[in-house]
Amino acid sequence: MKTSMENFQKYNTQLLSIEYATITDIQSLLKFIPSFKENHPKIKLELNKVLLKDIAEYLQKGIHDVAIAFDSEFKGKEEILTHTLYSGRYCAAVSKQHPLFSFESISKEELYKYPLVMLNPMVIGDSYYLMIQHAMEDGYQPNILRTADDVETKLFYIITENLIGFFPDNYDLADLKEEVRLIPIQGSHHTFKIEIGYLKNNSNPALYSFLQQIQNSF
């Protein structure tokens, strides 16, 4: 609040603080930012990367105005309102040494024959347990052989130990496309939404300008 008041008094600008956890969170948002800045030159956007497990807590404490994250982080939190930016499915990420690498799609039965690597629950919070719940809904107990503290380490284990990892279908593998493939999973419960979350009682006028343009853009 102090920073916002100083910006307004010195530069007649409003501050909107946005938090996110991964690049996939903001991919759908980035294309909208230039037009927003053109229409609202007096609103200063501040982007902050945080751990996924902290997204909802920081929003609830008023540290940030807007959170962009997987829908799992907002479930059951009645004071947080959301707007969906992207809906998709998780794919199985496999290395070129893996028996499933050449498959165009895989069944749930084929998927759960193999050990998995997932991000640490201390990093991704409720999303870890939701992944396990989705696997149980698929009818299988997942064999999680390793956990990783970040995506880079997760990809390392996928390549070096032939483990399978779950990645959003809109994830860009960039330079690793020759080494790792994202393969659709047939009939799986592993789905997700990327949502914008905000406190229903947030009175920052910049927030309402932001939300209005998002709703007009999507």
What is the structure about, briefly put?
This protein is of the alpha/beta class and 218 residues long. 34% of the residues lie in helices and 28% in strands. The chain folds into two domains: 2-86 and 194-217, D-Maltodextrin-Binding Protein, domain 2 (3-Layer(aba) Sandwich); 88-192, D-Maltodextrin-Binding Protein, domain 2, CATH 3.40.190.290.
Please explain how this structure is put together.
With 218 residues, the protein is of the alpha/beta class. The protein has 2 domains: 109 residues, Periplasmic binding protein-like II (D-Maltodextrin-Binding Protein, domain 2, 3-Layer(aba) Sandwich), CATH 3.40.190; 105 residues, D-Maltodextrin-Binding Protein, domain 2 (3-Layer(aba) Sandwich). The protein is built from 9 helices and 9 strands. The strands form 2 sheets. Strands 1, 2, 3, 4, 7, 8 and 9 form a 7-stranded mixed β-sheet that branches. Strands 5-6 form a two-stranded parallel sheet. The longest helix is centred in the middle third of the chain and has 13 residues. The model has no long low-confidence stretch (mean pLDDT 91).
Radius of gyration: 19 Å
Tell me the helix content.
Answer: 25-40%
Structural class: alpha/beta
What is the CATH homologous superfamily assignment of the largest domain?
Periplasmic binding protein-like II
